[in-house]
């Protein structure tokens, strides 16, 4: 199992979650579409050559973003990552994937 965490603007929150769930992430026992989400603030500065979804090149930006955490089986983690990238509006979506210990 893996913990899969990503950050997404509210405008795309439900669409990105739907894509990741459809790829097999977010299942716990007899439940699906399981996740934890919380609102926070992302900070970034687009560099030359970037095509930012929000903000302008060379300018520091702070935007509200949702942090979404869920679990994903090893069998589905690659598909879930690809679904995130395909559905996400950012040129470079931020995400983490951590293996979970079986204790």
List the helices and strands and how they pair.
Layout: E1 2-8, H1 13-22, E2 36-44, E3 61-72, H2 77-87, E4 95-99
Antiparallel strand pairs: 1-3, 1-4, 2-3
Helix pairs in contact: 1-2
If you had to describe this structure to a student in words, what would you say it looks like?
With 103 residues, the chain is of the alpha+beta class. The chain has helices spanning 13-22, 77-87; strands at residues 2-8, 36-44, 61-72, 95-99. Helix 1 runs antiparallel to helix 2 (77-87). The N and C termini lie close together (12 Å). The mean pLDDT is 97.
Q: Key features?
A:
Alpha-Beta Plaits; single chain; 20% helix
- CATH architecture heading: 2-Layer Sandwich
Helix content: 10-25%
Classification by helices and strands = alpha+beta
Supply Rg: 14 Å
The secondary-structure element order is EHEEHE
Major beta-sheet overview: 4 strands, antiparallel
CATH topology: Alpha-Beta Plaits
Q: Quick check: average pLDDT?
A: 97
Strand content: 25-35%
Q: Record the strand order, biggest sheet.
A: 2-3-1-4
InterPro entries: DUF34/NIF3_sf, N-reg_PII/ATP_PRibTrfase_C
Protein name: YqfO family protein
């Amino acid at each position: 199992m893996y913990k899969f965490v990503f950050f997404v603007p509210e405008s795309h929150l439900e669409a990105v979650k739907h894509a990741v769930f459809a790829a097999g992430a977010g299942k716990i026992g007899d439940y699906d579409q399981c996740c934890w989400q919380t609102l926070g603030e992302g900070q970034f500065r687009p560099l030359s050559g970037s095509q930012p979804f929000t903000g302008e090149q060379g300018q520091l930006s702070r935007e509200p973003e949702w942090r979404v955490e869920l679990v994903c089986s090893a069998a589905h983690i690659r598909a879930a990552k690809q679904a995130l990238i395909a559905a996400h509006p950012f040129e470079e979506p931020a995400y983490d994937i951590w293996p979970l210990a079986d204790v």
